[in-house]
Every structure is written in structure tokens, then in C-alpha cells.
Inverse folding.
């Protein structure tokens, strides 16, 4: 009965045998096309310029297409010039205009090269999909130029006439820009961001603007992303932490200029309360050129918001004992007479002894002035239109994990015990593990923004803080976040944040197999793709774990990590031939990339490779199309048997 109802519904869409048959043929042709290229990036951390360049060059995919198309017919310098034009068409055109080049001849040669590239990169898609990707102003002309026309006796003359018309009417430059951007779009079919867009680097807001205009993507939230989501939701510990991190890395511009959040309430409070404080323990990790006269004020602001953060975290740890974060109620462990603190039953001297806002009798209580600062900052974050727009996009396109084309994507880890079993984590009176833990935590994240029940909304807001830094958080995966210890205790033994057993078990293939089974994935091909913990390539560490079943693609996009990791980020490409990891050298600047035509130096390593190309039919979308083909064939049979009557003329 249900099947008949569904066929009746399908008959509304395909009212005749001819229409149903045509759709079967169309779908069948799609599933036989090569699988689209997937591009994976992780832990971008506000490094917009490097991110933008990697996005534009498709982790080397654009350059590979140039090599495939032009082979030995172009020299290395010419190929580099074509690549730069595709990455930065407007800037490259400006450079060419100033070079004294014969522009009419250059336009003609360039158009022919871009047309040839467009033909190749569009060949793996249906004409319908390519048509949707075409810029509206030039859609018809580009389609004519990149579509083979075997019926024409003199194709050369046909194409030459179109190109000459483009030149004659002065539209060469906008046409070149449109072609270059189309190549960028067609080289990568789908983008995966495996978490941590925010913090450390100076331009996360620009990364978010860029992602919001991208044609096809998904995002797996990282702990730094949920921190900003918590701040946007009004969770005060998250707000204090976001401000602290912006100060720590000399990035107040993100808040003030990027999001228009006024820091005056914190500035005023700092001047009144910490005006003479040297705040030496609260240094700013800022480039030398930014170390101006305001650095002293920033250090004091850094201290002021850090103390507020420690107080708010202590309150949350007391109110939510099931979070297992009692050690973050650290202000209550200080001996304020001797200025020392007890960590795991050992006393340590503090590096700072001036805490004018702390009442030893109730150390986590905010003063009236601190309360006022946080009320005003909470209003600013919640009323910031741009931040709210970005967070809505993260909620719409994002999740804690994703199963996509047979791979499991998540940012951090699967919380595990030392024996390899899944860790039981308490969430508001119940315990969860494995996939169920991910699912319930994501439900609470969404409640923070969408629940009509204020109590549930508050629980959701607090879960965002839990996800940021709790031992049981799959996004964090460490025993504690030792912020207080790193600032105020000299002994580096207290700074250690022990990683979850997951990271020690990654050399055992059964670890990945157990996790993949938990998410319904089995066999040789499925892999876990995650980031979060930088891979130290210069120490010989490999991003390929668990016998190739786990790929950790955090290679350290942020500049502070480059010396530590030896590279500037891993990315992953998954195309119809297989998977390849790319290790990137540090990106100098967009200006150098354009002026000197310098690409990021990248080193590719094949993870898997097959002579037989994967098709759309091998993907998740292909499986849906195959199911629809089966249903349409049933509809055609029903038409032919008389079970359902055709409705067309």
C-alpha cells in the first residue's frame, strides 16, 4: 500500500512512460561519470591568506590539470603564469596591464588556454551541472566555447569568431575572470572543513565570509568553533575565553574591526582596576611590528579577562560536577596568604600575586564591575549581526561528525579508555559512549540556539563550554585545559595536558575498525579523517595511522605551529583515482604569490590509488540515484501493466 502511494506521488512528477524513461536515462548517464573531487582542510585557525590560496589551487589540483592539458607544449614559467591567473585573475590582469605586454595578443592566447582547461575540468560533469556553475552574464558564450561541436566543418573558425567578438567589444578581461573562477569551481566538487576555523590567526571572519560563498561544503565543528558558537549564544565563560584568546594572540582586531564588538567596557574596567599592574605573566604572542605602546594595556586587559574566565569556569565546574572539570575550580585551591596553589596535592608558588578582584572567602564570585563588563560583552556578542550570521551558517552546514562517501569525518577523537573500549561520558544524568555520545552532544548544541525551553537552552549553552575543554569532550580529548597553570605556574610539569587514550591506540588497526563499525562503516575502504592535533612531520610522525584507516590532517596552518610541525598544514584530495595527502610549506603572502608567481610548495603522498576510476555510482549521491532509477523502473512497469494510468497527453 505504501509503495503504491509512493508510485502515485512519483507519477505526479513523471506522468508518462516517456518522461520516466528519459529521467532513467539521464540518471544512468550521471552515475557513470567520474566521481567529483573532494577537498579536505582542517585547523585553519584564522590564517585566511594561506587558506584562500589552498582553496584557489585545490591543494595542487589546478596545477595538475594544467600539466595534464598542456604537457610539454608549455614551459614551466608559462604554466606558472596560467596557474597564477586562475588563482588571482583580477590581480594578474592588473599586473599584465602594467607590464607593457601586447594585451590584445595576450588576451587571445589566454582565452584559448582557459577554454581548453575549462573543457577538460568540465568533462566529468553533466552539461546541466556545468550550466548551473556558469556565471550568468557569460553562461551562453562559455557553454558554446567549451562544448565540442562535431557537426561543424570548420570549428576553428567558429571559435575564433566568438573570441574575436569578445576582443572587439572590450570584454576580454571580465570574460577571463569568469573563466578562471569557473575553473576554480569545477576543479573541486565538494569541500570538507574538519574543524577549527577560529582563533590564533587574524582573519577567521574572512574565512567564514569565503565559506559562505562556496558552492558545496560541509563543516565538522572543532572545539575552537564551538567556543565561538558558545560566545554567540551568550555563554559567558565562552565569551571571556574568546576575548582572552584574541588578546593572547594579539588579535583584538578580529573582535573590534572584524565583528564590530566594542572593547571599551573591558578597557575602562582594566584601567580602573589594573592600571599600575605590570601583568608580566599575561604576555601577548604578537609579531614584533605590532608591539606598540598599547601592548602594556593589552597585557592588563589580558589579565583582567583571564581572571574573569577563571571565575566563570569555577562556577560552571561546581554547577555541573558531571562534566568532570572540578580541577578548573582552581581559584578555590589558592592559599592567598602565601600566594601558592595546590595542583594534584602539590603546592606551587604563583608567578603573580596581585588579584584585586578576588575575595578569598568566595574566589569565584564576580565583582559588581566584572558583572557589568560581562553583561555588556554578552549583549555585544549576542547582538553582533555578522557573528550571528556566521554561527547560523555553522549550524546549517555543520555538525559534530559526518559520514560521507564511506568516510567518517570528525575533528577531535572518539573518547576511549586505555583498554580500547569507548569511554562512558555523563551528560545531564545519563551516560553515553560512541556514536550516541556524539549525537546527544549535538542535540544539546542545537538546543542552545533553537530550544523554546530556557532550561534546556541553558544546558545547551553549557555543553558548548563542555565541548571546548572537558576531558570527555570528543572535540578536545585531553585530561584538562591547563590555561591557569601555563600562565601562573613556572613548573612545566603542571602544564601537561594528557591526551585521551584514542591517540595512543591509533597504531592499532582494530581501533579504527571498532570506531567505523560504530558508525555503520565496514570493509577495506572506509577511513576516519580528523584533525585537532598537529602532526610533527619534522620529528618523523606520519599523518597516516591505524594501517591507513585514520588520516590526521592537522599539519599546523597557524604560523606559531610552523617551527613545531615543520610544515604549514596538511590537506587531503579524494578524486576518482583515490586519495592523496598534501603537505604544504609556509605561505609567504598573496602579494608574493601574484608578483613572483609563487605557488605554495606542496608534497603529495598517495594514500590509496586505483587504476579503475570511481564513478558517481560509487558515492552516496550515486546510491540515492540508483535507488531512484529502481523506483522509476517500477513506475514504468506500473504504467505498462495498467496499475497506474499515464497522466500526460
Amino acid at each position: 500500500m505504501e509503495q503504491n502511494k509512493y508510485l502515485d506521488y512519483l507519477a505526479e512528477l513523471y506522468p508518462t512512460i516517456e518522461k520516466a524513461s528519459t529521467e532513467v536515462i539521464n540518471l544512468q548517464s550521471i552515475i557513470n561519470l567520474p566521481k567529483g573531487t573532494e577537498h579536505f582542510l582542517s585547523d585553519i585557525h584564522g590564517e585566511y591568506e594561506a587558506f584562500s590560496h589552498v582553496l584557489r589551487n585545490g591543494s595542487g589540483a589546478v596545477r595538475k590539470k594544467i600539466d595534464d592539458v598542456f604537457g610539454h607544449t608549455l614551459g614551466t614559467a608559462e604554466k606558472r603564469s596560467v596557474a597564477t591567473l586562475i588563482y588571482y585573475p583580477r590581480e594578474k590582469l592588473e599586473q599584465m596591464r602594467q607590464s607593457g605586454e601586447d594585451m590584445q595578443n595576450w588576451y587571445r592566447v589566454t582565452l584559448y588556454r582557459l577554454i581548453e582547461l575549462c573543457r577538460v575540468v568540465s568533462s566529468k560533469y553533466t552539461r546541466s551541472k556545468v550550466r548551473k556553475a556558469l556565471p550568468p552574464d557569460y553562461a551562453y558564450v562559455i557553454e558554446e566555447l567549451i562544448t565540442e561541436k562535431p557537426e561543424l566543418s570548420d570549428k576553428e573558425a567558429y571559435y575564433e569568431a566568438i573570441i574575436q567578438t569578445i576582443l572587439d567589444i572590450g570584454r576580454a578581461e571580465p570574460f577571463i575572470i569568469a573563466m578562471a573562477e569557473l575553473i576554480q569551481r569545477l576543479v573541486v566538487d565538494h569541500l570538507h572543513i574538519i574543524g577549527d576555523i577560529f582563533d590564533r590567526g587574524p582573519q577567521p571572519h574572512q574565512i567564514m565570509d569565503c565559506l559562505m560563498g562556496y558552492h558545496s561544503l560541509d563543516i565538522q565543528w572543532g572545539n575552537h568553533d564551538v567556543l565561538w558558537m558558545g560566545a554567540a549564544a551568550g555563554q559567558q565563560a565562552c565569551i571571556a575565553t574568546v576575548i582572552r584568546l584574541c588578546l593572547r594572540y594579539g588579535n583584538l582586531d578580529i573582535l573590534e574591526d572584524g565583528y564590530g564588538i566594542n572593547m571599551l567596557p573591558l578597557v575602562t574596567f582594566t584601567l580602573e582596576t589594573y592600571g599600575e599592574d605590570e601583568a608580566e605573566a599575561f604576555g601577548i604572542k604578537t609579531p614584533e611590528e605590532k608591539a606598540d605602546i598599547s601592548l602594556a594595556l593589552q597585557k592588563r586587559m589580558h589579565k583582567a579577562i583571564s581572571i574573569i574566565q577563571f571565575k566563570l569556569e569555577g562556577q560552571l565546574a561546581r554547577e555541573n560536577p558531571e562534566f568532570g572539570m572540578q580541577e578548573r575550580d582552581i581559584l578555590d585551591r589558592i592559599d592567598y596568604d602565601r600566594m601558592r596553589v595546590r595542583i594534584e596535592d602539590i603546592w606551587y608558588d604563583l608567578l603573580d600575586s596581585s588579584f584585586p578582584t578576588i575575595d578569598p572567602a568566595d574566589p569565584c564570585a564576580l565583582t559588581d564591575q566584572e558583572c557589568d563588563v560581562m553583561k555588556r560583552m554578552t549583549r555585544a556578542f549576542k547582538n553582533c549581526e555578522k557573528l550571528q550570521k556566521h554561527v547560523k551558517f555553522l549550524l546549517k552546514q555543520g555538525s559534530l561528525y559526518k559520514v560521507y562517501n564511506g568516510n567518517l569525518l570528525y575533528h577531535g577523537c572518539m573518547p576511549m579508555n586505555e583498554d580500547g573500549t569507548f569511554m562512558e561520558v555523563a551528560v545531564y544524568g545519563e551516560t553515553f559512549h560512541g556514536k550516541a555520545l556524539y549525537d546527544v552532544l549535538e542535540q544539546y548544541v542545537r538546543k542552545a540556539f533553537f530550544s523554546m525551553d530556557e532550561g534546556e537552552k541553558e544546558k545547551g549553552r553549557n555543553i558548548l563550554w563542555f565541548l571546548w575543554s572537558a576531558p570527555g569532550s570528543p572535540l578536545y580529548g585531553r585530561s584538562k585545559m591547563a590555561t591557569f597553570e601555563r600562565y601562573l605556574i613556572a613548573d612545566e610539569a603542571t602544564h601537561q595536558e594528557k591526551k585521551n587514550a584514542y591517540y595512543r591506540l591509533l597504531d592499532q588497526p582494530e581501533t579504527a575498525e571498532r570506531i567505523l563499525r560504530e558508525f555503520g562503516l565496514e570493509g577495506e575502504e572506509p577511513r576516519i579523517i580528523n584533525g585537532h592535533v598537529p602532526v610533527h612531520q619534522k620529528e618523523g610522525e606520519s599523518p597516516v595511522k591505524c594501517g591507513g584507516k585514520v588520516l590526521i590532517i592537522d599539519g599546523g596552518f597557524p604560523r606559531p605551529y610552523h617551527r613545531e610541525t615543520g610544515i604549514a598544514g596538511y590537506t587531503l584530495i579524494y578524486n576518482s583515482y583515490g586519495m592523496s595527502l598534501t603537505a604544504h610549506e609556509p605561505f609567504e603572502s598573496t602579494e608574493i604569490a601574484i608578483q613572483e608567481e609563487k605557488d605554495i610548495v606542496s608534497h603529495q603522498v598517495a594514500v590509496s590509488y586505483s587504476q579503475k576510476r570511481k564513478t558517481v555510482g560509487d558515492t552516496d549521491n550515486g546510491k540515492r540515484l540508483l535507488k531512484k532509477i529502481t523506483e522509476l523502473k517500477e513506475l514504468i512497469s506500473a504504467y505498462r501493466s495498467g496499475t497506474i494510468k499515464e497522466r500526460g497527453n
Q: What stands out?
A: The first helix runs from residue 2 to 13.
